[in-house]
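in:
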């Protein structure tokens, strides 16, 4: 059964999609091209295992590859800096708005690269969250809802 937080995040993303579709309809020529703005995602990747890892108490994960995957498709990517932070951008198109609720941040870089005592197989995954009712200057800003570790099974 889905957690109430996951349901809330999904509902908020659907609401954002409605707002963005409305914004696209008002953009005239730009809307006809399918681009409704710019999606900017910023965050910190933790070097830890667990569920909804607290970034305040976990060390950061430098040089980790972070991918935005929507419905299984790679949409954007970034690499964390020495402080474990990243920023990625993508054009926010009408087609991306349609499946924004199915997007996750995925870190496939093995945790053993940031801490030799952690597992060498597994993935960090986070849904997205943010102020979903505002599109300021054509920029839609989101951030990780909280990374969780998913172990790979052989």
């Amino acid at each position: 059964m889905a957690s109430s937080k996951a349901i809330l995040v999904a509902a908020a993303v659907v609401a954002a999609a409605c707002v963005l579709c409305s914004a696209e309809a008002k953009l005239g020529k730009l809307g006809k091209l399918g681009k409704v703005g710019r999606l900017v995602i910023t965050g910190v990747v933790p070097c830890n295992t667990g569920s909804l890892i607290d970034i305040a108490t976990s060390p950061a994960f430098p040089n980790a590859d972070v991918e935005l995957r929507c419905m299984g498709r790679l949409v954007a990517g970034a690499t964390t800096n020495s402080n474990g932070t990243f920023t990625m951008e993508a054009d926010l198109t009408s087609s991306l708005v349609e499946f924004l609720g199915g997007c996750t941040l995925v870190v496939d870089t093995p945790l053993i690269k940031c801490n030799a005592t952690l597992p060498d197989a597994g993935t960090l995954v986070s849904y997205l969250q943010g102020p979903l009712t505002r599109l300021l200057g054509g920029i839609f800003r989101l951030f990780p809802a909280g990374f969780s570790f998913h172990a790979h099974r052989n």
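note: The longest strand covers residues 35-44.
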